[in-house]
Write a structure and sequence with these properties.
Order of helices and strands: EHEHEEEEEHEHHEHEEEHEE
Structural class: alpha+beta
CATH class: Alpha Beta
CATH superfamily: Endonuclease/exonuclease/phosphatase
Largest sheet: 6 strands, mixed
Helix content: 10-25%
Oligomer: single chain
Number of strands: 14
Distance between the termini: 5 Å
Length: 263
DNA sequence: ATGACTCAGGAACTGAGA
């Protein structure tokens, strides 16, 4: 069972890349972020033609998340609970059936939070607190659970090319990293760090200033696993090569394999 | 170096991204 996440930075701009990557990597389930379109505009047919079921939670202009799954959806819910006034489309949760039972996946696009001296940063921290509350509830189910997406969190200094340069950034501030640790401390395992201590593993390179050419990247796209998922983790990958494609997303896919039947 | 790039919206630019 292969589960992936990719911030595509507009699904309309990246449809061909998405199709090419799906054919190549063959994930069973993938979470997309920043689809940047309303539900009706999502090119679902292109993915249904590849055998995927499609669940979309979009909005006009920016944000937006979606899940593609080879398994039919037993449940789909959208929107992160805890703030009725939050209209940004950043959360989708699905349940599918595997040969070894139910699998729950949350696809998230966590707020950026910059600049930190504006209302954007408290929104980010509030969103993280709400996510923590949701995760705590879901962990009580004691089932395989994967929370995958663009966290906009650099967990540690080895996950950024120049930590000093990012010290005051909303992605790397102590409060941001503390809130991320709080989620891990509920009992979650971060898939990449469960399998390697290697530094300079990045998932995002800015379009500007030759960041890709200089390998000035950051690692902000993560898969967090419940104990029941972590105990079945078989491997992890970062598809860095997609960043070399023409007109790429600034993020690359991250995926993890689980012993949940099939693949 | 206050830059650099790419997207959506909507018709010249701004806001957002990270």
């Amino acid at each position: 069972m292969r589960i992936a996440t990719w911030n595509v930075n507009s699904i309309k701009q990246r449809q061909d890349h998405a199709v090419a990557w799906l054919k190549e990597r063959q994930p069973d389930l993938v979470c997309f972020q920043e689809i940047k379109c309303v539900d009706e505009a999502f090119p679902r047919e292109a993915f249904e033609a590849l055998g995927y079921n499609v669940a979309v939670h979009g909005q006009k202009g920016f944000n937006g998340v979606a899940v593609l799954s080879r398994m039919p959806f037993d449940e789909v819910t959208t929107g992160l609970p805890g703030d009725e006034a939050d209209v940004q489309s950043r959360f989708i949760e699905v349940v599918v059936s595997t040969p070894k039972g139910a699998l729950r996946v949350c696809g998230i696009y966590l707020p950026n939070g910059n600049p930190p001296d504006t209302e954007k940063y408290p929104y980010k921290l509030g969103w993280m607190a709400r996510l923590k509350t949701l995760i705590a509830m879901r962990l009580a189910y004691e089932e395989p659970l994967v929370i995958a997406g663009d966290y906009n969190v650099i967990p540690a200094p080895e996950d950024v090319h120049d930590p000093a340069l990012w010290m005051g950034d909303a992605l790397f501030l102590p409060k941001t990293r503390a809130a991320f640790r709080e989620m891990l401390n509920l009992g979650l395992t971060e898939a990449v760090r469960a399998t390697t201590d290697e530094a300079k593993l990045y998932t995002f390179w800015d379009y500007q200033a030759g960041a890709w050419q200089k390998n000035n990247g950051i690692r902000i796209d993560h898969l967090l696993l419940s104990p029941q998922a972590a105990d079945r983790l078989k491997g992890v990958g970062i598809d860095k090569h997609t960043r070399t494609w023409e007109k790429p997303s600034d993020h690359v896919p991250v995926w993890a394999d689980f012993d949940l039947g099939s693949k």
